[in-house]
Design brief:
The complex is a heterotrimer of chains A (500), B (321) and C (310).
Chain A lengths: L1 E10 L2 E11 L4 E5 L6 H8 L7 E6 L2 E2 L5 H6 L2 E4 L11 H5 L17 H15 L14 H14 L4 E5 L7 H16 L3 E5 L3 H7 L2 E6 L2 E7 L5 H9 L18 E9 L6 E6 L3 E5 L6 H8 L7 E6 L2 E2 L5 H6 L2 E4 L14 H6 L16 H14 L17 H13 L5 E5 L7 H16 L3 E6 L2 H7 L2 E6 L2 E7 L5 H13 L1
Chain B lengths: L1 H19 L5 E6 L5 H16 L3 E6 L4 H14 L3 E5 L6 H10 L4 E4 L11 E5 L1 H19 L3 E7 L5 H15 L5 E8 L4 H14 L3 E6 L5 H10 L13 E6 L2 H8 L5 E4 L2 H16 L7 E4 L2 E4 L3 H4 L9
Helix pairs in contact in B: 1-3, 2-10, 3-4, 5-6, 7-8
Chain C lengths: L1 H23 L6 H26 L7 H17 L7 H21 L5 H20 L4 E2 L2 H8 L1 E2 L2 E2 H19 L1 H11 L1 H6 L4 H27 L1 E2 L7 H11 L11 H21 L6 H23 L3
Antiparallel strand pairs in C: 1-4, 2-3
Classes of the chains: A alpha/beta (500), B alpha/beta (321), C mainly alpha (310).
């Protein structure tokens, strides 16, 4: 179906893809993995007609394939499902499916949309992806998973021969992800070839026939998924063994309580009480929608609180506002990068320095000490291993999603926080960088800070935390100390009511 | 931004005027707007008076923006004008302008609006809006009384943020109060000096009160809209016709003159633009020559009506358009 | 609460206002007065309908008031100068389309923010119109007024024109590809380009339509006034935007419509103006009521925008 012969791509002197040769057969699924910046996106952009390769040839469906435009690639039967969906929440499902080419009625210069045919065609597509909602429903009313299915239905409308999924599960809950993987399996039976890009190796392994690993623009290995072990994949991606994936901290939590929360009510229903001790990493586990982020946002003053008492280092906190928390050294890295106020068109340095500027005001004259700022920014950026070309010139928008996340993390690290609230800090971040983020967390904790780690990845919590709390439908349902960690028990508490 | 664009132009102007070695002194004329004929006639009259007395002039129009007017006056000052005639945006924003002129020791005459406080040194030339509209409406009321019938009256108001509009309304009210037997005011239509609002308002009022037979407008420029509404309500007939509505206005513009000639309009309060403009320029000149000037010059205006139309037309600014 | 009522909250508001006025005066609730309101609203409703399309694309057209004025002055001057009356309408429409075209091109080709572009054409249009008219009122011949009072099958012509324009634009918005794609553009321009929507072409068309509607609306108003004063159309853009937003169209784009939407919004504004005169309200009350109306508009719009996130 798709063959790449010795594909290479250079931007000026920089070689981003080196001599890649691989094949996807009809009805076969290729899992494509690699760290951020390894060259996956460049490869996909070549297939999508956004760049032309510098060397090599592509063969698609038995013919030479040299797309120069996005539409050309679409017409020859390649569809893309991106992490960021191209749907309009203010329009209905059926309108979204046919937004660029509505079926028309005869007469009136063929300008009037044929609603009947629109609905029936839309229903047929929705049935194909197994989404049983009315095609007149507004997209904005659907869950992320349902929207993902609509996006796939839209792709299927073009009768594609190859579908490329780029991180499709990042925004989905576990159930939604399972459903999506099922759908992909059913597409296989329709002899559609697929390329599946993901950081989640379990997903890739469960869905792909072959797995290809790319590192630094070169194809490292391509092998049947069944015989390619997770450990080998990781080694190939990172280029070394990651035996100790979760690094061990040299310190233990002390007895002194840093943050104490009593009867915090963020949803109008449940009162939550817990505390975090100095040098402690507290994990908060729960399904998407269990109320974890809502609790954190309420605590941080970003959303309405219905009640509760908060003590920080023994003193009552009266005004729960972000400004006030930052002044006390409590910072919150939210899940949503855009909301975090990334200055997309400003340089990396300007993004990183932002929150810590007050620290660099010189005592005499009130000027900013730019020399120290630059020194510290570059050390922080190195610590978080942001992949960049130029701190001063390169705008953050040019970085990959994972690197943008690292820039934000660097920004908060610049403030030397005493408590760091991390909401899904490693989502969409590659494995090598994850390890570094874990090490950074440990460093901070060893220096005396504490961390509230919110995550949907149970392994991450098991590996990193001193204590794990489980949240279920807005309530805290269980708490485990490190010695009593038990994956299945934690899962049971997180899922309990949903099954009752 | 336009502010910054203007600076080079002003600098250029200053340079030109310096290199020119001006022989005749310069008078700065600043007008709030040129959006009605009244203002156009005024600015022409001021220019004419300047020329007559051997002065050059520069004109700046602020297009309803008080800030811009303030900047324009500052530009005049740096241009080195000998005197200023200003028709200000409103009675409050003119005060800092007067202060600026005083600081630069340039005499200033304020045309058509009375400053809100009497601080500073200036001459204000203003029509007695209250008196003129009172006289006009009184004349209309006398006509009504002569008819021997009771009349329902309508007044079209101006922008109630404008002191002239407020005074004209007060004049109207004082006049009709003297004729309680004859006149009953049933509708006050605010127009905010906007034709469409006047049209809708008068139409609605005539609809609600079909017996209205007495209409006064606070400004002549609203005539087309009012007439349109009167036609719809079948009320637009010349004097002498049984359905004629006693009809009066204020300003003395070209349309008022025509309506008087065609015998649709009974009376119009006229501001003596020629007198006011002459007085403004004269006040500035007298100050320059060190002669004493009264700080307030009142234009008594006059009422023009069917009986004095011929003899007064020469003084009516609208008649010359 | 407001969010759920949204498309009909204005209708309810309108009914409340009408009940209030009819309880205060007998002259309010009758067929003739209602006809009056419809005639008076026709100009505003037409301009606001064009504005609705622009707002849906997350744009704004501040130049409509100036287009009304300029189109009126140009066609009026030509008729006063002796050209036949029938020529007035096509010339007015041509002026509207021309200014709309300038707006569209500047927004699309030169990538200038619509607010700035149309602010510039607002001043340009007004200035050019004042220049042509020499700041004097253009008094139109009697025959012009006849257009405004003409009746078609017993229905006044302004109402007929309004219904025609509004129905056509309503169908365009709800039933055609063009209309549906406008909502997509208003939601996200970048996504729309990706989805294969000819965004630039559509945006130019939208500003053309808005210019055209402004010219038609201006023409309808002038045919009733019989003269064009130099302040004609001043601030009409705000009334048009107010009517659209009151009717549920969002300033943030992607949302809104003409029926009931903008039509009811315009009707509400005009009904209040009408009712206040009918009950002979204190003239100082008018700005207060306008102010509270603007407050309601902003409240509705921000509720909808930010309400959807919570």
């Amino acid at each position: 179906m798709l063959k790449l012969h010795h594909i290479g791509k250079s931007f000026g002197p920089v070689e981003v893809l080196k001599d890649i040769t691989l094949e996807v057969k009809t009805g076969e699924t290729l899992g494509l993995v690699g760290e951020n910046g390894a060259g996956k996106s460049t490869m996909m952009n070549i297939l999508g007609g956004i760049f032309a390769p510098t060397t090599g040839k592509i063969e698609f469906n038995g013919q030479a394939f040299e797309p120069v435009e996005v539409s050309e690639s679409q017409q020859s039967g390649i569809a893309f499902i991106h992490q960021e969906l191209n749907l309009f929440p203010n329009l209905s499902i059926k309108e979204n499916l046919f937004i660029s080419a509505f079926p028309k009625k005869q007469g009136f210069f063929n300008t009037i949309i044929d609603q009947k045919s629109l609905s029936s065609q839309a229903s047929a597509l929705l049935a194909e992806v197994g989404l049983s909602v009315s095609p007149s429903t507004l997209i904005g009313k659907l869950t992320n998973g349902q929207q993902q299915l609509v996006e796939i239905a839209k792709a299927l409308n073009g009768r594609p021969k190859l579908i490329i999924f780029d991180e499709p599960t990042t925004a989905l809950s576990q159930q939604e992800t399972d459903r999506l993987l099922q759908l992909i399996n059913s597409l296989k039976e329709k002899h559609i070839s697929m390329i599946f890009i993901s950081h989640n190796l379990d997903e890739v392994k469960s869905i792909a026939d072959h797995i290809a690993v790319i590192r630094d623009g070169a194809l490292i290995r391509m092998q049947e998924a069944e015989i390619y072990s997770k450990k080998e994949i990781i080694r190939d991606m990172v280029g070394r063994d990651l035996d100790q994936f979760f690094p061990i901290r040299s310190t233990h939590p002390t007895e002194s309580v840093s943050l104490e929360i009593q009867d915090l009510n963020a949803d109008g229903k449940n009162d939550l009480s817990f505390s975090i001790r100095e040098k402690e990493v507290l994990g908060l586990y729960g399904l998407v929608g269990a109320g974890r982020s809502e609790m954190a946002r309420g605590l941080y003053g970003m959303e309405k609180l219905y009640g509760g008492q908060v003590r920080w280092k023994g003193a009552q906190m009266h005004k729960l506002t972000p400004q006030n928390w930052i002044r006390h050294g409590v910072v919150y890295l939210t899940e949503d990068r855009r909301e975090e106020g990334i200055l997309a068109f400003k340089s990396i340095r300007k993004n990183v320095q932002l929150a810590a500027l007050p620290r660099f005001i010189q005592r005499f004259g009130g000027w900013l000490d730019y020399r120290s700022i630059k020194r510290e920014v570059s050390s922080k950026v190195k610590a978080t291993r942001v992949k960049y070309q130029d701190l001063e010139i390169q705008p953050v928008s040019e970085l990959s999603g994972g690197n943008q996340q690292k820039v934000l993390l660097s920004r908060w690290l610049m403030t030397n926080p005493s408590l760091l609230i991390l909401d899904e800090p490693t989502k969409g971040i590659d494995i090598g960088a994850r390890e570094e983020i874990y090490q950074l967390i440990n460093q901070l904790v060893e220096q005396g800070s504490c961390v509230l780690l919110i995550s949907s990845e149970i392994e991450e919590l098991l590996g990193m935390c001193d204590r794990i709390m489980v949240m279920n439908q807005g309530a805290l349902t269980a708490e485990f100390n490190r010695s009593e960690f038990d994956q299945s028990a934690i899962l049971k508490h997180a899922l309990k009511a949903a099954h009752d | 931004m336009s502010r910054y664009l203007l600076y080079p132009i002003w600098i250029l102007l200053v340079v030109c005027s310096c290199s020119h070695q001006r022989e005749r002194p310069l008078i700065g004329i600043s007008f709030e707007t040129l959006q009605t004929e009244y203002w156009v006639a005024s600015v022409e009259a001021v220019k004419a008076e300047c020329i007559k007395n051997g002065y050059d002039f520069v004109v700046a129009i602020a297009n309803g923006d008080a800030n811009r007017q303030f900047e324009q006056i500052n530009n005049f000052i740096s241009l080195g004008v000998a005197g200023i005639v200003i028709a200000p945006k409103d009675s409050h924003t003119v005060i800092p302008i007067i202060k600026a002129a005083n600081r630069a020791n340039i005499p200033i005459a304020v045309y058509n609006r009375v400053p809100a406080s009497n601080l500073g040194d200036y001459v204000t030339v203003v029509a007695d809006n209250l008196e003129i509209s009172k006289n006009t409406v009184t004349y209309m009321c006398e006509l009504a009384e002569k008819s021997g019938k009771k009349h329902q009256a309508l007044i079209v108001l101006g922008d109630l943020g404008d002191i002239n509009a407020v005074n004209r309304r007060a004049g109207f009210n004082q006049a009709v109060a003297a004729f309680p037997e004859t006149i009953e005011v049933v509708a006050e239509v605010p127009s905010e000096w906007n034709q469409e609002k006047a049209l809708a308002g008068v139409t609605n009022a005539l609809q609600a009160n079909p017996d209205i037979s007495f209409i006064f407008t606070s400004s002549d420029f609203l005539f087309p809209a009012i007439i349109s509404a009167m036609k719809t309500a079948d009320k637009y007939y010349p004097i002498g016709h049984e359905k004629h509505v006693i009809f009066g206005g204020f300003d003395g513009d070209a349309m008022a003159y025509r309506l008087l000639q065609e015998k649709y309009l009974d009376a119009d309060g006229v501001q003596d633009v020629f007198y006011e403009c002459e007085a403004s320029v004269q006040a500035v000149i007298k100050k320059l020559n060190g002669e004493p000037v009264e700080s307030t010059i009142i234009d008594p205006g006059f009422v023009i009506h069917q009986d004095n139309l011929e003899q007064m037309a020469g003084k009516m600014w609208g008649a010359s358009f | 609460m407001i969010k759920r009522l949204s498309p009909y909250s204005t209708v309810i508001l309108l009914v409340l206002v009408m009940l209030l006025f009819s309880s205060l005066s007998d002259g309010f609730l009758n067929g003739r007065n209602f006809m009056n309101i419809l005639i008076q609203v026709s100009g505003l409703a037409i301009v606001a309908a064009g504005m609705t399309l622009v707002l849906i694309t997350a744009g704004i057209d501040l130049s409509v008031g100036s287009i009304m004025f300029l189109a009126g002055v140009v066609s009026g001057k030509i008729v006063v100068g002796g050209a036949p009356l029938w020529l007035a309408l096509p010339i007015a429409l041509l002026v509207g389309v021309a200014v709309g075209w300038v707006n569209g091109i500047a927004v699309v080709r030169f990538k200038i923010v619509p607010f700035i572009v149309t602010l510039a054409t607002l001043y340009m249009g007004r200035g050019f119109g004042l220049y042509i008219s020499e700041t004097r009122a253009v008094n139109l011949p009697e025959s012009f007024l006849a257009i405004g009072t003409f009746k078609l099958l017993g229905i006044p012509l302004p109402i007929v024109i309004m219904v025609l324009v509004l129905v056509v634009l309503h169908l365009v918005l709800t039933k055609t590809t063009f209309g549906r794609q406008l909502y997509a553009i208003g939601n996200d321009k970048r996504k729309s380009v990706k989805a294969g929507i000819p965004v630039n072409k559509l945006l130019i068309k939208v500003y053309l339509i808005s210019g055209l509607c402004a010219a038609i609306g201006g023409f309808v108003a002038i045919a009733q006034l019989g003269a064009i004063s130099p302040s004609f159309g001043n601030q009409s853009e705000f009334m048009a935007i107010a009517a659209a937003v009151l009717g549920g169209t969002s300033l943030f784009g992607g949302k809104g419509g003409i029926f009931p939407g903008t039509f009811i919004g315009a009707l509400l504004i005009q009904t209040i103006q009408n009712g206040l005169v009918i009950i002979n309200a204190d003239p100082y009350l008018y700005p207060l009521i306008t102010a509270s109306l603007i407050f309601v508009i902003v409240l509705i719009d921000s509720r909808e925008k930010f309400g959807s996130h919570v």
